[in-house]
Every structure is written in C-alpha cells, then in structure tokens.
Amino acid sequence: MPGRDARASPEQAIGELYHACYRRLVAQVYAFTTDLTEAQDVVQEAFARALARPRGLADVDNPEAWLRTVAVNVVRRRWRRRKLLDTILLRDRPVARTVVPAPGPERADLRDALAGIPATYREVVVLHYFADLPVEEVAAVLEVPVGTVKSRLSRGRAALAERLGDYRDQGTAPGRAAPRPEGPRHRRAAGPPRRWHVPELETRLAHEREDLLDAIEQPPLERIGARAAGIRHRRRARRAGVALAVVAAAGFVAVRPWSTDPEPPPVAVASPSPGVVYTDAGITINGLTGDGYIDPRGWITDVEFTDPDNGYALVQCRAGEDPCPASLARSTDGGITWRLATMPPSAGAPLDITAFPDGRLVVAGYVSTDSGQTWQATTRPNGPTTVIGKGQVPRLGDGGVEVWSSMYGNRGELVRQPPGMTVNWVAGAPTATGGWWVGGTGDSGPAVAVTRDGGASWEVHALGAPGQTAQVSVLGDHVYATVLGPDRQITAIYMSTDSGQRFTRTTSGPVTTPGGLAGEAVPLLDGRLLITGTDQKWYLSEDDGRTFTWADGSLPIVGPIVRTPAGYVAYDLFGSDWAAFSADGSTWRKLQVN
C-alpha cells in the first residue's frame, strides 16, 4: 500500500548492489585477468548467478565478497581450461611460441607493464591502487598475512618502476634501464643506494585507475537478468533430465491420488500469445498475454510482490459503489496467472496487505502462513517496541512509526521516533544495507531521517526548502529526497551520493513539470529519475531532477507508483483499475487481474 514498508526483494537488493558495486568489482577482478573485457564478463556472470539463486543473496552475510569470490573462481576455472586446451593442442606437435618482450621505457604502457610482472605482485598492486582496497582488505581477499601484502606491494612497485623506467639510480643515466633490484639475499656490494620514485609511480597508478574506471562499461541490469534466466533454464533442464532418467529406470510415472493441495484451481490460464508492448524513452510495459486474466468485482487497491515471482493483489469496491466482498488473488509467475486465495474475516474494515519475504502476509489483523489459504487472528499490540527486529518492518501509524511482525502483525509504536520530526511517510523497503528511511516535517520544515540500527537511533536531515512533507528514493548509495508542497507539487529535490550522509539540492526552484508527484520517485539503473505526475503522465529526468521530460510514445496514462518489497507497482493504469509491476522501474508487466 502507498507509504509503507516491507523487506527488499532479492532482485531489488541485487539491483542496488549492481548499481553500487559493479565498477569496483571489475577493478578488483582486473587484478587477476589483466584483461578488462574478461573482467567485465566474469563480474556480469557473478551477478547473473546471484540473480539465478532462489533467494538471491539474502542468505549471504557479505554480498560483495560473495560476488568477488564467484568472479575470481570463474577466472581461475577459465584459466585452467585454457591451460588444458593448450596442453592437448601442443601434446603431439610442438609449436614455436612467441615471447613478447617486456615494454621498454621508450614505449612503456602501464597495463602492459602490469601484465609483465609476477602475478603475486600484480594482484596486490591492482587491488590496492585500482580497486582502492586497504592492505588489510587485500590480505583478506588473497588470504595472506598483512605483512606479505606490504612486502609484495613494495616489490611490485619496484618491478613496475623497472619496467617503466620510473626510477633514478646514482650512476645510471636517466632513461636507461637499470638492473633488477636485489633482495636481501643478494645485497649490492658497493655504491650509493638506489632511489625509487614511488610518488611518481603512484601518480601514474592513480591516473591509470581513473582511465580504467572510465573504460568500464556497465550494461543494463535487464541484460544480466537475461543471462540469469539462461542459467535457471539450464538448471531446470538438468533437473528435468535427471528426473526423466529416474522415471525411465523405474518404469513408471507416479501419480498422486492422495494429494490434498489446498489451493483452488486457477480461475483462468494465460494464453501463450504475446501481448501488446507499450514503450517510450526506455520504459516498457508488457501487456496481457491473451485473454487469460481473472476479473473479480472491484478495483485493485493494493499489490505486494515479495519477490519477482510471488505477488498478491487485493481487489475491493470503492466508497460510494454497491457493496461487494473483497477478493485476494495470488500469482507465482510474476503476475501472468492468478489464483483466488481465501479472505480473512474483515467485518467491512479498510483493508491492505503487508507481505513479508518469509511468505507470510497480514490482512485486517489476521496472519496467513500458507499464502492466503488459512488465517489466524493476530494478538493485540503489546505496547511500544524498542527495535525493528528480524522479520519485522516499520509502517506508518497514527502516532508515527509502528513496527509490524510477520508472526503477530502490529506490535505497537517504535519507542525512539525520529527526534524533532512528525513522520507522515515511511519507505516501501529497506536499503541494501538494512537502513529504513522516513519523511515528514521538522521544526524548520520538511525533513527526512534514516535509522541504520533498527530504530535504536536516527539521523535527521532538515532539507530547508518550503513544503509540507518529504519522501525518499534509494538506489545503491544514491539517495533522492523529494520535497512536496500543496497538491503534491515538487518544491525541491535533494541528492546524496554517499548513502544519505550529505545531501545537495539539485533544483534551483520548484519543479513546474509535472504539476504534482503521484506516488514516489523511482531511481533507474541508467542514472535517470522516473516519476508519474498527478496529470497521469510518465516523466523522466536525466539531470537528477532539475528538469523532467514527458515520455509519451505509446505509454498509457497512469496513477501513482509505489515501492513494494520486490520493486514497484504502478496503479490506475489506463485510467482504470489495471496495475503493473516492475522490479527495476524500467520494464513493467501489466498484471492479469482486473
């Protein structure tokens, strides 16, 4: 429901990681490949494997370290395969190998020089200077002592300087290559000490790091998603092959007359025919796949997706219409097909859904642990609660931030509210690092606040612009704060690139196009900002909210966009009760329930 929270979906969390960590990971993996194209490919493979996991990286303590480990393992496997192939090809017919000499000072290139020094030196140099990791983290990545890293850094710099001619030795003419620096077992017998120009080398490494990061190309997440879909398909094919072999060996196919699946059959099955596609300015809405949609009486009033496949839609009659029973529909394939679930006894109370990643959902004071088939009444709130614990989420209540549990529903107000603030908006999902944002007003006007420790403390940011409230949108370490005035006019937009530590105003005055913001802003993976206006149009900004351009094309009129646990939901599509879901804000699926 608009303005409330649940846990981030695996795909959403990986999307934020992809936005925040991709280039850094490529720079780290480059230490093991010395080939930028291959480094990018294996990092994309790591993200695809993460997306292909059923729970994403939700069960991983350090997702970035997991991605780096997978990428490095892919590099090593490919290297072993290439080495084996070389052995096979050269086994019976020796081939003359061509040895490329190390670049001399007159044609020295830093990347060529890096490729020419021992791998143990190259890895620490690239991880420290290109990936910007402190020596302690380099030691953790390579699983060696810190002292070993420091020693290899020193020797790696020396080897690089020799190849680049980046040192001076008393008695050696400038520009002339000098002998390899001796180790402690081979000390120089006489002569003044050799002077290595480390600052000059480090300056070159810093410039090369900037060039490397600029050269890294980050494809859209949709391409990584397609790669993940291929991984999932291959896994299903392997499982199907194993299952088929077992059935063939047994000589029969088991049937299950004893099955007592409590779910009712689908009301309708989607047609395989392709649907209409609506698109403009990089925003795509995939229409219905045919006539296979369910049509309960009423309007879609709430949609929640706990992951890109599993979602719920609540359909109710609106005020002033003839009374009708509310309906709850469930989808397990991203909104293509739906089944009607059982509604809890609601006694005509206003309804909305709170869905949790563990599969439980709360509706009207009842909890379901079996996807909406059976319900149990929740206990009454037991008073204020001190922290947003595991399996709990904050929501907006009458007195500010409340804490909700997948076991018991509403647990009561949070003891520590954001100091000096009246909260009137709570984010739709946590950040990738577990932070929760809220918006409202403070003593000096609109303000936003974040808790990074489950509500034990808050960081409050007074925004300074005139308005009545503020909302927050997050993607990776980019945080946008939107200040809203009367009729939801955008009076200012602020941006942070350090996860909300510092905000900078991007607008010099009120945003006149559109006239008002419907729902919430959506940061896209390509750096743009998507919003829908109170005029029911789609708008995009390429300059962090300074200006917005209407995306017309074939996109239908639309109502508010709201963050859900697994992505975003666009309501009132086509000006009626259709809705659409998107995991990333760019590619949408029109839900086949109306």
Brief sketch in words of this structure:
Helices cover 27% and strands 25% of the residues.
Give an overview of the whole structure.
The N terminus is likely disordered. This protein is 27% helix and 25% strand. A six-stranded mixed beta sheet has the order 3-4-31-30-29-28, with no helix packed on it. α1 crosses α3, α2 crosses α9 and α5 crosses α7. The protein is globular, with a radius of gyration of 29 Å. The chain is of the alpha+beta class and 594 residues long.
Helix content range of the residues, please? 25-40%
Strand content: 15-25%
Radius of gyration: 29 Å
Terminal CA distance: 17 Å
Large-scale geometry: globular
For the largest beta-sheet, the strand count, sense and barrel status come to:
6 strands, mixed
* Tally of helical runs: 9
By secondary-structure content and strand pairing, the structural class works out as: alpha+beta
List the helices and strands and how they pair.
Layout lengths: L9 H24 L2 H17 L10 H28 L19 H7 L2 H12 L4 H8 L3 H19 L2 E2 L26 E2 L1 H18 L5 H30 L26 E4 L2 E4 L12 E7 L5 E6 L10 E5 L7 E3 L11 E3 L5 E3 L2 E3 L7 E2 L14 E6 L2 E6 L3 E5 L7 E6 L9 E7 L2 E7 L7 E4 L6 E7 L2 E7 L5 E7 L7 E2 L11 E7 L5 E5 L4 E4 L7 E2 L10 E4 L2 E7 L4 E5 L4 E4 L4
Parallel strand pairs: 4-31
Antiparallel strand pairs: 1-2, 3-4, 5-6, 6-7, 7-8, 9-10, 10-11, 11-12, 13-14, 14-15, 16-17, 17-18, 18-19, 20-21, 21-22, 22-23, 24-25, 25-26, 26-27, 28-29, 29-30, 30-31
